[in-house]
Amino acid sequence: MDQEISVHTLFWAKRGMNRAVHAGALQLDREKLALGIRSIDEERALQAFRETLERNLRLEPDGTPRTGSFLRDDVELVDFYVAEESEGFPHTYRNESFDYTVTFSRPGVAAIVKIKYPALFTVLDPIVWYVKASAELVYE
Fold first, then answer.
1. What is the 3-state secondary structure (H, E, C) of the chain?
2. C-beta separation of 75 from 62 below 8 A
3. How far, in Å, CA of 54 to CA of 33, rounded?
4. Beta bridge partners of 42
């Protein structure tokens, strides 16, 4: 039963991550957009990512779980990356430490968070996942 719940928690976390990077990728740089350049505002993207992750994983702003969350331990943002138009596309982002590679064909966001699943029973040790996700700016 513990394994089943842990897998459900992983899927729940991945779904929340997908929503969070998508929210980040929607944060256009308005000044550049006025010039006809599609670009992501990195500061706003990080803020939207954090707020969406907090809502989806039921976290406080500091990453600690709220009452009712599946989690008991803090969620840690390990990496947050914005693929900018200045890098040219296609552009490949690599994080060797976490064996994560994504190729962007337009501006986008990638992120990795560390999530610890607390075993409900003593059969399993606590499980640590590095949940990864990416999203691109959607247009045309």
1. CHHHHHHHHHHHHHHHHHHHHHHHHCCECHHHHHCCCCCECHHHHHHHHHHHHHHHHCECCCCCECCCCCCCCCCEEEEEEEECHHHCCCEEEEEHHHCEEEEECCCEEEEEEEEEECCCCCCCCCEEEEEEEEEECCCC
2. no
3. 28
4. none
Per-residue tokens: 123 = 């059969």
pTM: 0.89
Structure tokens at 51: 């707020």
Condensed to tens digits (0 to 9), the pLDDT of residues 124-136 reads: 677 888 999 999 9
Does the pLDDT value for residue 103 go beyond 80? Answer: yes
Report the interhelical angle of 2-25 vs 42-57 (nearest 10°): 150
pLDDT in tens, 55-84: 998 898 888 888 877 777 888 999 999 999
CB-based burial of residue 38 (10 Å sphere; 0-12 exposed, 13-18 middle, 19+ buried)?
Answer: middle
Contact between 71 and 65 under an 8 Å Cβ cutoff? The reply is yes
